Amino acid sequence: MASKHIPVLIDQIIDYLQPAEGQKFIDCTLGAGGYTLALKKKAGEQSLIMAIDQDEKAISEFQEVIKEKSLKNIFLINGSFGKLKNLIIGRFGRKIEFNGIVFDLGLSSDQLNDRERGFSFQDGRPLDMAFSHKEEGKTQEIVNHYKEQELLTIIRNFGEERYAARIAKKIVEERKKQNIKTTGKLKSIIEDSVPYSRHQKIHPATKTFQALRIATNEELSNLQKALPQAIDLLVPTGKVAVVSYHSLEDRIVKNFFRQEAKNCICPPEAWQCQCGHKAKVKVITKKVVTPTAKEKQANPRSRSAKLRVAEKI
């Protein structure tokens, strides 16, 4: 079945990366393969594309696309981009360098529409927000067994949810009666915990589901681990492009790029440099890049996307 996923900011990413014939690229978040296909089309048959995804289903489905389109030199790796360098060395037996690396930190439409997993709360689904089957059961473990304070911290910090304390308390109360196993049950608990109007722009469960997904997949820590590895894997003048969808991700990317663009990161009170830090990148996107009004209209899920790009010095 053809994917319904529309890659976000794809034209802008291609403009920034400027793929040339025979170059090498990494798509750290394969998903439905939109970026991988676009890079391959621009860089030609002799180019090499590494495409990584934690989701085994995404890997197997794109293998069929490769066969159907008779594509060459696209290598798929099932794993976390938090282990980016090890994945590359494991595949080639050595470190190799790339001309560009892309991260799209959002969920694909295929994942959101997968009724076997709980990324969406639009109907009753298993409470499973793991990208990989290896982490299956972790979301239920968090919801049903973490202490109330731990739940509160996850929901407040990863979801930026103002009613985190109420939601955590209600979850603990309800799980004493019966384990929470479906998205529908969790959704109703959240609706009972916070003020809710049908006229709100987002559903009150949105931020909590986001927080649980981030915690389940250790998304923020993996991003923090992956960014320095990505810079190390680039050729000089190679670029890394990151599309994020909420403030926590964007803040990590912005701060990392800003720090790595400096020759010194000592505190202001230091009378001379003690750190010895040397700039590794220059930031190409001085201002964050967002989708055009036309793209937002064609693909509403792109509306919160933010693109930042840095070039290795």
Question: Summarize this, please?
Answer:
By secondary structure, this protein is of the alpha/beta class. Helices cover 43% and strands 14% of the residues.
Morphology: globular
**Strand composition percent:** 5-15%
What's the total helix number?
13
Q: Report how far apart the termini are.
A: 43 Å
Total strands: the figure is: 7
CATH level-four homologous superfamily name of the largest domain: Vaccinia Virus protein VP39
Q: What's the CATH class of the largest domain, please? A: Alpha Beta
**C-alpha-based Rg, rounded:** 21 Å
Structural class: alpha/beta
- Unreliable segments (pLDDT under 50, ≥5 consecutive)? none
CATH-defined fold name of the largest domain: Rossmann fold
Q: Which series of helices and strands comes N to C?
A: HEHEHEHEHHHHHHHEHEHE
pLDDT averaged residue by residue: 91
Query: How many individual domains?
Result: 2
Please name the CATH architecture of the largest domain: 3-Layer(aba) Sandwich
How does the major sheet shape up?
A: 7 strands, mixed
Map the helices and strands.
Blueprint: H1 10-17, E1 24-27, H2 34-43, E2 48-53, H3 56-69, E3 74-78, H4 84-92, E4 98-104, H5 109-112, H6 138-145, H7 148-159, H8 164-177, H9 183-193, H10 206-217, H11 219-232, E5 234-244, H12 247-260, E6 281-283, H13 293-298, E7 306-312
Parallel strand pairs: 1-2, 1-4, 2-3, 4-5
Antiparallel strand pairs: 5-7, 6-7
Helix pairs in contact: 6-10, 7-8, 7-10, 8-9, 11-12
Any overview of this molecule?
By secondary structure, the protein is of the alpha/beta class. It folds into two domains: 10-110 and 219-312, Vaccinia Virus protein VP39 (Rossmann fold); 123-217, DNA polymerase, domain 1, CATH 1.10.150.170. 43% of the residues lie in helices and 14% in strands. It contains 13 helices and seven strands. It has helices at 10-17, 34-43, 56-69, 84-92, 109-112, 138-145, 148-159, 164-177, 183-193, 206-217, 219-232, 247-260, 293-298, and strands spanning 24-27, 48-53, 74-78, 98-104, 234-244, 281-283, 306-312. A seven-stranded mixed sheet has the order 3-2-1-4-5-7-6, sandwiched between helices. Helix 6 packs across helix 10, helix 7 crosses helix 8 (164-177) and helix 11 (219-232) packs parallel to helix 12. The radius of gyration is 21 Å and the shape is globular. It starts with 9 loop residues before the first helix and ends with a strand. The mean pLDDT is 91.
